[in-house]
Amino acid sequence: MSTDTITQKTASSITLESGATISARRMKWGAATKLLRLIPQHLTTYAPLFFAKDEAGNAVGVSVDAILPKLGQMIGSVEELTTFVLLNGTNITPEQLSEDLEFHQGFELIAAALELNAGDDLKNSCAGIGKTLSGLVSATPRKTSTAASTPTSAGTVSAPTT
Asked: What's the pTM value of the predicted model, to 2 decimals?
């Protein structure tokens, strides 16, 4: 096992009007895995609205007609996702989130939290796991026989099939 460890990056921080300093932090396992489930759900639901295509499959840009009926639902989903990142990827409290955090500060913290939790460290860890698992898979497939066979000191003896 490697003795290399993931080093703690310097977390970005902001100062609220109240004087409190809010910093990005590493998420715990449960929160991080939930985030990895939330992001694809959000993207698969709403990304197609921003990449409309005509009948021939040609990109036609943003479809306002497709977005407007789902705008309320989309805003709620974005709020759920961003609130989750802020509460789990920073040291902000729910009270500070609703009372003290300015709009632009929220996006600064989200960017910092995502960089810290879903940046190069995560990519490198996933690549390392993939490399290890790929080493378990044989590069050459094994041939299988339909006949029952028994290894012996003289070679393999196949039993007749009926």
From this structure: 0.64
